[in-house]
Structure prediction request, 303 residues.
Amino acid sequence: MKVKVIVTLKNGVLDPQGKAIQQTLNGMTFDNVSEVRQGKYFDIEVNESDENKAKSQVEEMCKKLLANLVIEDYKIL
Amino acid sequence: MKSSVIIFPGSNCDRDMDVALKKFGFENQMVWHNDAEIPKSDLIVLPGGFSYGDYLRCGSIAGKSRIIKSVIDFANSGGLVLGICNGFQILTETGLLPGILQQNKYLNFICKNIFVKIKDKENKYFKKIKKEVLELHIAHNEGNYFCSKDELKSIEDNGQIAVTYCDHKGNDDEKNNPNGALKNIAGIFNKDKNILGMMPHPERMIDPFLSGEDGSLFFENLIESL
Prediction:
């Protein structure tokens, strides 16, 4: 089954890329954009039919590799 | 004294490090990331570069390499492990050093000479260096050191800050911070100070005709201290 994961920067962690995107959007006349935070999205195909098992495996993957918990949070969709 | 430099796919300062270590008397060997064991060593070096193209996060994939288990075992048994630039990023990703290196604050790749202040000499890496300020070279896109407030407190309390960015007089204030690093941190130790990660490259400063010689002081001290 396919498991989807989103990794985002924790609140308060500096995101210079998000800031640059926000400023560019503002310059493109999207004046009402006050903040952009950039993240990562993963589509993971796991050869496992049990959804709970697959998701708990992906959770392990997030903790061990996909996210660095010092600065990032993850969400399994 | 024996040293091992580990090569990952995308390492590019491995040979410079090899030249530097040999120049100052180390018997150096190059070790491939997919080897299972590190040959007997007094020092392990994780060199600079762009391991795995900086995919996912800098150093994250190299941090799961086959050889890393023996690096961790070596470090945990008190062995000296030095990570320069991408090597520093790998050390934080393995958890051997706290925190993480984020993208530079102003989104620019920085390649220039800088000064660092030595913050601690009660360790083998800086013990006999007489100077307080060294001129070294940096070349990185992700050198912006970050950790949580609690972690920062514990790093400061344990004297784990090794070097900070400063001017030639040693002023390590925000004005002399090239990349936005917390507290101008350019390098840190683990608690026992046998592991050092730093962004500046001492191996690029070992020749008075090409660059400068403050890197020589680093390697001279290292071989004497071991």
